[in-house]
């Protein structure tokens, strides 16, 4: 089964776009979906069980919705645990990893508050569509 992880804090405006996109995919027969405020090493156990994983997160001032492969690397476990760190940790711990992707969605307002900025909200349908298409691409 595939795994979709929406990353972000909904109480920090556009930072909540990852969980928002992931939430639109809940109930999919093709994936397990979760939302987290940040990536933590314990998620490596979830990766171990997945065939593919999609990390969805806001990108500060990104130009557009972008879908791309995650290149794994040895884990740094430093500040700012990134998808590649989690994939690297999973490889170190379990010897293999699922095919890993990121879906980056532009955001501009990361201050305290709820709701997306107009710019981030304008990308929401495109991001949901890209994530849904990723789910349907059963390679």
Summarize the structure.
This protein is an alpha/beta fold and 139 residues long. It has helices spanning 17-25, 44-48, 83-94, 118-136; strands at residues 2-7, 31-36, 52-60, 66-69, 99-107. The protein has four helices and five strands; from the N terminus they run E-H-E-H-E-E-H-E-H.
Can you characterise this structure?
The protein has 139 residues and is α/β, with parallel strands linked by helices. The protein has one domain: HybD-like (Rossmann fold), CATH 3.40.50. It is 32% helix and 24% strand. The protein has four helices and five strands. It has a five-stranded mixed sheet, with helices on one face. Strand 1 (2-7), helix 1 (17-25) and strand 2 form a beta-alpha-beta unit. Helix 1 (17-25) runs parallel beside helix 4. It is globular and about 40 Å long. 42% of the residues are buried.
Label this structure with key terms.
alpha/beta, Rossmann fold, single chain, 4 helices, 24% strand, 139 residues, five-stranded mixed β-sheet
What's the CATH architecture name?
3-Layer(aba) Sandwich
What is the 3D form?
Answer: globular
The helix tally amounts to 4
Radius of gyration: 14 Å
- Report the uncertain regions: 73-79
Structural class: alpha/beta
Helix proportion of residues, in percent? 25-40%
Largest sheet strand order: 2-1-3-5-4
List the helices and strands and how they pair.
Layout: E1 2-7, H1 17-25, E2 31-36, H2 44-48, E3 52-60, E4 66-69, H3 83-94, E5 99-107, H4 118-136
Parallel strand pairs: 1-2, 1-3, 3-5
Antiparallel strand pairs: 4-5
Helix pairs in contact: 1-4
């Amino acid at each position: 089964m595939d795994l979709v992880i929406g990353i972000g804090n909904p109480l920090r405006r556009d930072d909540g776009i990852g969980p928002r996109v992931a939430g639109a995919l809940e109930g999919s027969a093709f994936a397990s979906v979760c939302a987290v405020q940040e990536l933590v090493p314990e998620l490596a156990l979830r990766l171990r069980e997945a065939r593919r994983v999609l990390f969805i997160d806001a990108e500060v001032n990104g130009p557009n919705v972008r879908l791309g492969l995650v290149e794994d690397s040895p884990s740094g476990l430093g500040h700012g645990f990134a998808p590649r760190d989690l994939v690297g940790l999973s490889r170190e711990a379990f010897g293999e990893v699922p095919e890993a992707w990121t879906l980056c969605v532009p955001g501009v307002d990361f201050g305290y508050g709820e709701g997306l900025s107009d710019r981030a909200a304008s990308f929401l349908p495109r991001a949901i569509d890209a994530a849904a298409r990723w789910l349907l691409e059963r390679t």
